[in-house]
Design goal:
The protein is α+β, with helices and mostly antiparallel strands. Helix content is about 15%, strand content about 35%. It is built from two helices and six strands. It has a six-stranded antiparallel β-sheet with strand order 1-6-2-3-4-5. A hairpin with a 2-residue loop joins strand 4 and strand 5. The longest helix is centred in the middle third of the chain and has 9 residues. The protein is globular. The N and C termini lie far apart (about 30 Å).
Amino acid sequence: MTAHTERIRLTGTPSGQRVRLVEFGEEIDPLQREQLLSYGLTAQQTLTVLQQRPMTVVLCEHMELALEHGVAHHVWVEEDADQYHSPIVTRP
């Protein structure tokens, strides 16, 4: 995380915004943490938030992942500074 970037919860990120994963909160069960890592949710991974309701859906690489709000609330991200240099993907 840079000095100019604020850490925010994934659930507080608007649809269409691109972010970088910072870390998982301690509240996430270790087994669930391993599952998220196996899906490619690793530190500094770029994610695009596709929707927040009824679940948080993110695009990670070329895969859409749906996260329950109880999990997404404990995923910490930061704004991706590169998002302003490439197109943003949103869901209809």
